[in-house]
Amino acid sequence: MRDSSCGLAWVCSAVKRRAARRDWRSAGRRTILLAAVPLVLALWLAVPGVASAEPLCTDTWVGPAEGTWQTAVDWSTGKVPASTDVACIGSGKTVKVIEGTNQTGVVQGDGTLVISGGALEVASVLERSSIKTFRLLSGTLTGPPGHRAVHER
Fold it and tell me: Is 70 exceeded by the pLDDT of residue 1?
């Protein structure tokens, strides 16, 4: 039996079967690819990346082992941290807020922060502050509305 588009029937059917398998495989690859895209996107959103890591320090305490927040020369930028800064206090350092109204976006580090007068406002709503040792003797610590201080061990 002859087909007008093909020389021999058995050759023609083999060619058609091969083409059908190729179409099925490419359709399967498209399906797998389309199924993989949402999975990769979900993993990308779920796994913390560089953006959700601790924020980089923009102003680091470089002063003595113990000093006051308000001393500008003891900060790496030569100025007291502002509401957009990430203030970092390293291990073995104690920084005291003793007067005035002070701000920072984030405060973090392995050092100690003591508020013994005045006020410190931690302004960032996007980044979490974390300091190893914190003492509130007098004065105030404030943050953005809806945020709270939590003691973690």
Answer: no
Q: What is the pTM of this model?
A: 0.64
Indicate the Cα dihedral angle 85, 90, 92, 94, nearest 10°: 0
Structure tokens at 15: 């060619």
* Cα-to-chain-centroid distance, residue 62: 25
